[in-house]
Every structure is written in C-alpha cells, then in structure tokens.
Amino acid sequence: MTRLFDNIKLFNLLKVPVRFKHPPHHWSVLQKKKSHSQRALDHFDDFYKNVYGQSWSNIRSALLAKNHKYIAVVNNFSDTTRICQDLETLGAMNMKLIYDASKKNQAIQQELKKKKKVLKEIKRIDQQLDHIVSETKSKYSIYPKSYEIDAQVVEKTTFDDNKSFKPVKLQSIETDLNIVNDSSRIIMPSSGITAEQLYEYIPATEIKGMDDFILESEHYGHYSKGADFVIQIEEDHTLNFPDQLLIYTFEESNDMIFPKSKTGTTKVSDYFILDGASILPVLSLDLKPGDRLLDMCAAPGGKLMIALQSLIPEIIVANDVQQSRINRINYFINEFLGTMNFWDKRFLITQNDGRYIEDKDIYNKILVDVPCTTDRHVLHEDDNNLFKASRIKERLKLPELQTELLKNALKLVKVGGTVVYSTCTLSPIQNDGIVRMALKKSFEESQVVHVVKDQTRALDPLRYLYNFGNYGLKYGHIVIPSKSRNFGPMYFCKIIRVK
Question: Which residues are catalytic?
C-alpha cells in the first residue's frame, strides 16, 4: 500500500501538462467539423456575390432548394405514344409545342411591330409634307401673309386687248457662262473617322480554398492575357428543335418529381430525367442528317442520349477518359437502347483523353461538356465532393484542363463545323474566360479561325421556360437557377470554324 502511494506521488510530480482544449462551440472546432458542401457554399458566397451582386441571394436559394426542376426525355425505342399520353396525364407539357407556339407568337408580335413602325413612319412623312406645303405656300405667295384679296377689285380689273406686249430680247447661252464657271459656288465634300472601343471582362480575383482565402489571380492570372485577342461574333437567328425529340416538363413554379420510368414492350425504359437546361447545348449543335458528332466528355451520358433520341446524326462517337466513366455510359445505353440495332455501326464508344484526340477533319459537330465545379451537385453531395481538402489542387487546375479540351476540339472540327462548349457552373472564369483563351491559343498554335454565334434571338422562344442571365457575358449564354424556373446552372457557347 505504501509503495502504491509513493508511485502516485511520483506520477503527480512528473505529469506532463496537456494543452487546453477549446469547447465544442468554439469557431476552430466548428470549422474542423465543416462539411464539404458547406465549404463549397462559403466559396460561392465569397466569389459569386461579387459577380452576381444582389441577384446572388435568389440564385443561392434556388441552388439550395431540395426540389430541383427536371425534364423527361421520351425514349423513341420504347412505346412512344403510350409514354407521351402517360406524361400528359401527369400534367406535363410537351416542350416542342411550347417552343413552336412561343416562336409563332413572337413572329406575330414582330409583324405587328413592323406594321406599327410603318404606320408611324407614314404619319411622320405626312406631317413633314404638310409642313413643307405650308412653308412653300407662305414663301412663294405674291401677297404678304396679312393681305386679304378684295373680290370687288378683282372684278374691276380689265385688260386692253388693243395694246400688244413688247417682245423680249433673246440672248445666247455664252453670255451667262461667267456665272456657271464661278468656282465660289462649288461646295467641297467632307469626311470623318469613327473609333470603336472594346470592353473586356476581367474575372473576379478571389476564391476560397480549404480554410483560407487563395488569390485566384495566382492560379488563373494568365487567362487574362487573352484580353487583347479580338473574337468575331455573329448573330444566330434560329434554333433547330428536332421533331423526333419528345421532351416534357411541368409549368412554371411546379417542381413536381417525375415517377420512376417503366419498362415498355421493347424491354427498355420509357424515359430518362435530367436537368432541363441540359438540352440547350445539344440544340445549339443544330444537328442535321449526315452529321458526324463527337461527344468529347460524354459521361454520364445525358446529353449523349438527347443526341441519340433526335435520330438525326449519321455517326455519334461517345468518348471519355476513365474506364469508370465509360462503364456509366454503357450502363445508360443498355438501359435505354438495349439490343436495338438502329445505331449499329453508327454509335461508337471510345476511351481517350480528349486533349490528345487526333481525328482531324472527321467530325463536323463536337460537344465539349467539360468537367467543372458542378455548382449544384457540390452543394448537396458530400461524397467525392470537389471541395474536399484533398481535391483542392484538382479544382484549381480545372481551367487549364477545360482550355486544353476546348482548344483541341477547335482544331479537330472540320471547316464549317460547329463546336459547343458547356459547363454546369456559374463561374465566369470557367465559362467566357475559357472560350476566349481557347480561341486565342488555337489561333496562335494552328492558325484556325472561328466565329462565336450570339444566340440571343434564337433562344427568345424559350424564355418562357428558362431564366437566361447576362451578367457581363460576351460570348456564351447561361441559364440561371431561380425559384420559379429552377433549371441550371448551364453555360453554353456555340462556335463555328471558318478557316
């Protein structure tokens, strides 16, 4: 017993002090417990508030909403008529019919505007003519404005027929040449020069990394070097919405979830659901018979399946870099195409790094749906979240990867062909910034020339369904999430190779 007591005294004497621990509510403890989704939200709050200003709070609420708005794409290899009837019974609307009706209504409105403009111009001309006539009468009247003709005086006025008029002496033209040759009467023309100023978007300079702020300029600063590169922009008036593409959605402010797809008589699923903004990059490709389409980053396969359901392209090649992503494409295809031989020898799956594909002058349509921060996904899923501390390097290298993928697509596409670049992020750096830099690099390295298509007018008939934002965009278009139309985010840019 005495020995034990001595050991206790020795332990107390030699005891090493332990550092004081913070209580559970302390900021340092809470920060360690912060989820990856919360880190993503902190980053967006810091970055996007500067980009979107007062609109960010509404966008933020839409992104965090549990009920995301979807569309259902009908599988043309199942029982199409029955599927459409089932979806319409649920209250879903055919997007193609909405698009066509909106397009027709806009055409009528434009025609009315033209007529109003013509009538307004006619009225203006009439007023101008009345003014000219009035001025002419006043100017060339032989009487002063205040003079009134006396009718009695006119009646008393007579002419003496017996007195003849004296003849006027005629003169030759040469006598008046000195008047014609008077150089002081000649008016010399004048000319002027106009100048045009170009506005370049400068991206935001900060993002939030793991626990501290990381200057975005340190990682993305070299992208601003493309500011002096002039990109030609042409207006695009039409959007090709294929008749075979059957897509359904619910009305505005209705976020109803589509029921699980059934299996039809052909043993494949009736339809697949995805974010409604996903169809826009595919529609921007303007698919036509004979097209050869490369989907450079095809997994998981939503946009690829939309292209397949159009039944238009001659050949579709689905490519991705990892075997796991190739497996996802195969699973998706088997679920909706099964053993159908419609696409036999017309549909291929390849596994390549899109940055190093060398199949030049084969494809006239290329979709580059690049890896990005996937803004909505990272706010709702913690597993494999891009904002994990272990993935910060990967996240910061995204713009470099995106630029290289788009640059290679711009080199591969045939002259006259179309490249559509798309992301599901709100980041202006990953959107317009990448387009500008890739166009600049592809020109400097390969002397290829492209034009960017401004699709503002072409997309007008879809404004009933989508909330298109601007926020300083110069090249592409973006679908901004909102509470009533909670699609997106989705950025897309249509580019045509001209040389």
Answer: 424
